[in-house]
Specification:
By secondary structure, this protein is mostly helical. The chain has helices spanning about 5-15, 20-50, 55-60, 70-75, 80-90, 100-115, 115-145, 150-200, 205-210.
């Protein structure tokens, strides 16, 4: 056996070794996609409940942002209410100076956008694993064909095409979840920036310039 043949046999064996982890990861992708879809449905219901009849413009026109009552705070969606609470806490601790408010808003934006990481990764990983799960059994299928075992070849081809379908389905579901969540994230970020501008206009400039 020459070196080239030895390398080819080694790569074939390595490909077959990867078959088990690829199948496990495909199952993990399916579970993750279903979990993300379920979480999105729960979030949809929660957002619809807390935003029923709410518009930020009308809320801001009703009075100042800082020092507002707890009852009025409860009218805000949870993300905006948390931002307002953190700003007021930082103000009480005299930490809203030297761009601290902008830093706080950016931290909230990063936290809000963090929910898009999982779906976006699954959009690429799902189909990639599906392709791997297709090509690996096809190698075994061709080997069975060369040996004249048509039944084994047919079984491997079924596995190959099934993994493609599963990978594409998981990626498609993740894409839908990512698209829906992106619209929610953009809305939340836009509202947080708008509220931050109002808060900035209500804080005296000497307080913003104070250094610790």
């Amino acid at each position: 056996m020459n070196v080239l043949q030895l390398l080819e046999n080694g790569l074939f064996a390595l490909g077959q070794v990867l078959r088990f982890p690829v199948m496990v990861l495909l199952w993990a992708c399916v579970a993750s996609a279903l979990f993300m879809a379920g979480a999105s449905m729960v979030e949809f219901v929660a957002r619809r409940r807390e935003r029923s009849g709410f518009t930020l413009d009308r809320w801001l026109k009703a009075g100042p942002v800082l020092g507002t009552s707890e009852e009025r705070k409860r009218q805000l969606p949870s993300a905006l209410r948390q931002l307002l609470n953190d700003v007021e806490q930082a103000r009480r601790e005299h930490e809203l100076h030297d761009g601290a408010l902008e830093h706080l808003v950016l931290e909230f934006e990063e936290r809000v956008r963090g929910v898009l990481g999982g779906p976006r990764m699954l959009v690429k990983v799902g189909p990639s694993l599906g392709l791997l799960g297709t090509l690996i059994p096809m190698g075994q299928s061709l080997a069975s064909l060369a040996a004249g075992n048509l039944e084994a070849m047919a079984g491997q081809m079924v596995v190959a095409f099934t993994t493609t379908i599963i990978g594409l389905a998981a990626g498609t579901l993740a894409y839908v979840v990512a698209s829906v969540r992106l619209s929610w994230v953009n809305q939340t970020v836009r509202e947080q920036r708008y509220m931050a501008e109002r808060i900035l206009s209500e804080i005296p400039q000497p307080e913003l310039a104070r250094r610790s």
